[in-house]
Amino acid sequence: MGAVGTNINYNYPFFMNMNDQLAIRWEKTRQGDVSEFGAIHHELYPVLYHYVLKITRDEIVSQDLVQELFIKMWERRERLGPIYNVRVYFFKAARSLALNYFKSQKNHLPIAEDQREIDLAFSQEEIWVNGENDVEFNRLLTLALNALPKRQKEMVHLKYFDGWTYEQIAEVTGINYQSVVNHVHRAMQQLRTNLVDDKRVQSCRIAV
């Protein structure tokens, strides 16, 4: 099932923080500690569900996919070995499960033909929660974000709404670092163009 069983090189400095609490919890999970795995579930389930929901746009499917991920991680805990950045690993696995789900569907496919570009959808409610309290600007910003190319939308969401670094986005999506930077830069340029006449853009949380 995609990234859950994928061998990933975790020897880069980016992954070497073994003092990370989730990494410690994972090591205890590998030893069969159910309570530590429950703590990982408690911390990551909400954000993973939110991310997968942005992909599938289906609450039930998203719940099932994320729960499937945790079941697989528990069942494969001994074979997977140490995971030095648990959060990134789980996000990458969740993304892979969502892509595989759509590959198995014959009808609605909100991803590109190459099965790697995910078509996330921004909502006014989400942007409102993230700090914009002007209804009209909220609407315009939502429209501008959703007008971005698919890959740029995913990059922007991970960078500005989920708080990922460029390095983490590269790991989750499988896109090289410079390409991630370029996608985000182009997205910001496009947003500036679309919102150039709106002074409120200066206070926008995504700093367009």
From TrEMBL:
GO terms for biological process: DNA-templated transcription initiation. Coiled coil: none annotated. One of its GO terms (molecular function) is DNA binding. Keywords: Sigma factor, Transcription, Transcription regulation. Residues 43-106 form the RNA polymerase sigma-70 region domain. Residues 140-191 form the RNA polymerase sigma factor 70 region 4 type domain. The keyword ATP-binding does not apply. CDD domains: Sigma70_r4. It comes from the Bacteria. InterPro entries: RNA_pol_sigma-70-like, RNA_pol_sigma-70_dom, RNA_pol_sigma70_r2, RNA_pol_sigma70_r4_t2, RNA_pol_sigma_r2, RNA_pol_sigma_r3/r4-like, WH-like_DNA-bd_sf. Belongs to the sigma-70 factor family. ECF subfamily. This is Sigma-70 family RNA polymerase sigma factor.
